[in-house]
């Protein structure tokens, strides 16, 4: 007699979760070839963040990354390029605040993709939470040289504050994290520890990745 229930405006369904395995060491890389190098080291979550390609070359990177991630049963998040992530069946997408308005979030959710959102201040965090994302990223935790960053570092205190506010969903820490800092970041409540330069700039990225994965497993045991 009532008919169909109209969707409540402003109420959104949650994005799927990231499964029972902690996100762990979360390398952020600019080419699919990095997946070949890092996934054999025990990394289970990785982000493809390509800022310098377009068209067929970009699509090829995404397709290759998806194929490698599947072979390792790893969770691949594609930064920015949500349509390519959809087309190629990535595990999820990672979007910044400035990307949210342009992305078809309902379509991503229907397709079962996960969504991670960057946040740099409490206002951005509040906005991110309205989308019920699969995880929230907090950064920069420390000063970073990998990105021009108008935001001041949150530090471990900021991370702990985020931890209280994000509730049960995973929290990813990013910005200036290296092998010396990873344990403290995990102890402050991060489920995922994202890194660019500590891995891609390492003399031996595979040794570094293996050491970090070992360290992280110990922390979560
Ligand atoms: N978002 C916040 S900090 C950052 C991004 C993409 C860069 C992190 O790179 P690094 O080298 O691990 O500091
Ligand atoms: Mg972006």
UniProtKB/TrEMBL annotation:
Every Thiamine phosphate synthase/TenI domain range: 31-199
Residues annotated as binding 4-amino-2-methyl-5-(diphosphooxymethyl)pyrimidine: 47-51, 79, 118, 147
Binding sites annotated in the UniProt record for Mg(2+): 80, 99
Residues that, per the record, bind 2-[(2R,5Z)-2-carboxy-4-methylthiazol-5(2H)-ylidene]ethyl phosphate: 144-146, 176, 196-197
Family the UniProt entry places it in: Belongs to the thiamine-phosphate synthase family.
Role played: Condenses 4-methyl-5-(beta-hydroxyethyl)thiazole monophosphate (THZ-P) and 2-methyl-4-amino-5-hydroxymethyl pyrimidine pyrophosphate (HMP-PP) to form thiamine monophosphate (TMP).
Listed name of the protein: Thiamine-phosphate synthase
Species this protein is from: Parahaliea mediterranea
Taxonomic lineage of the native organism: Bacteria, Pseudomonadati, Pseudomonadota, Gammaproteobacteria, Cellvibrionales
Gene (UniProt): thiE
């Amino acid at each position: 007699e009532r008919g169909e229930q109209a969707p409540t405006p402003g109420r959104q369904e949650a994005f799927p979760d990231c499964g029972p395995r902690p996100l762990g060491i979360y390398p952020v890389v600019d080419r699919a070839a990095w997946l070949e190098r890092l996934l054999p080291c025990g990394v289970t979550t990785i982000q493809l963040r390509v800022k310098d390609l377009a068209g067929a070359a970009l699509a090829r990177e995404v397709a290759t990354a998806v194929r490698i991630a599947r072979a390792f049963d790893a969770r691949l998040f594609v930064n920015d390029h949500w349509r390519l992530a959809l087309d190629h069946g990535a595990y999820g997408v990672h979007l910044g605040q400035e990307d949210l308005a342009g992305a078809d979030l309902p379509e991503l959710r229907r397709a079962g993709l996960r969504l991670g959102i960057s946040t740099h201040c409490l206002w951005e965090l509040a906005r991110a939470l309205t989308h019920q994302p699969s995880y929230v990223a907090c950064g920069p935790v420390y000063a970073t040289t990998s990105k021009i960053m108008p935001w001041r570092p949150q530090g471990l205190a900021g991370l702990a504050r985020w931890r209280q506010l994000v509730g049960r969903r995973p929290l990813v820490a990013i910005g200036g994290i290296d092998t010396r800092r990873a344990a403290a970041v995990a102890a402050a409540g991060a489920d995922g520890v994202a890194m660019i330069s500590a891995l891609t700039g390492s003399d031996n990225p595979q040794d570094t990745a293996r050491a970090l994965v070992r360290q992280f497993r110990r922390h979560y045991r």
